[in-house]
Amino acid sequence: MQLVLLRSKIHGATVTETNLNYQGSLTLDEALMRAAGIFPYEQVQVVNLNNGVRLETYVIPGPEGSGVVCLNGAAARLAVPGDKVIIMAYAWVTEEEAGKMKPRVVLVDERNRVVA
């Protein structure tokens, strides 16, 4: 049997911008991607803490150290700059792997810099 478990998350990131006229995805600071172990074009779930919206998209790298968290395309209608979000990546694992797995949790400050 395969299970879907949380692999990593960035908790409390601040949306810095939205771009309706982009083909889609989430632009994310490369430093945050590395800290969370999220790969370019990996599917993620984004949960907006301000309005409760949950969406799935994929990640594209943004400039390292920029703090960018930008919802693009249709997702741009689901947040406004300043909203707090949780960005989560999941993995399919076996039952045996599930018993040993612990998610990587990245906490950020108001400028989306890693604090823990």
UniProtKB/TrEMBL annotation:
Positions of transmembrane segments: none
Cofactor: pyruvate
Keyword Cytoplasm: yes
InterPro entries per the UniProt record, alphabetical: Asp_de-COase-like_dom_sf, Asp_decarbox
Enzyme Commission no: 4.1.1.11
Lineage: superkingdom: Bacteria
SUPFAM superfamilies the UniProt entry points to: ADC-like
Gene Ontology BP, a term: alanine biosynthetic process
Residues that coordinate or bind substrate: T57, G73, A74, A75
CDD domains (UniProt xref): Asp_decarbox
Principal subcellular localisation of the protein: cytoplasm
Post-translational modification: Is synthesized initially as an inactive proenzyme, which is activated by self-cleavage at a specific serine bond to produce a beta-subunit with a hydroxyl group at its C-terminus and an alpha-subunit with a pyruvoyl group at its N-terminus.
GO cellular component: cytosol
Localization: Cytoplasm
Catalyzed reactions: L-aspartate + H(+) = beta-alanine + CO2
Active site: S25, Y58
Entry note: cofactor: Binds 1 pyruvoyl group covalently per subunit.
Pyruvic acid (Ser) modifications at: S25
Record keywords: Autocatalytic cleavage, Cytoplasm, Decarboxylase, Lyase, Pantothenate biosynthesis, Pyruvate, Schiff base, Zymogen
Pathway note: Cofactor biosynthesis; (R)-pantothenate biosynthesis; beta-alanine from L-aspartate: step 1/1
UniProt GO MF annotations: aspartate 1-decarboxylase activity
NCBIfam families: panD
HAMAP family: PanD (MF_00446)
General function of this protein: Catalyzes the pyruvoyl-dependent decarboxylation of aspartate to produce beta-alanine.
Subunit structure: Heterooctamer of four alpha and four beta subunits.
Name of this chain's protein: Aspartate 1-decarboxylase
Source organism: Ammonifex degensii (strain DSM 10501 / KC4)
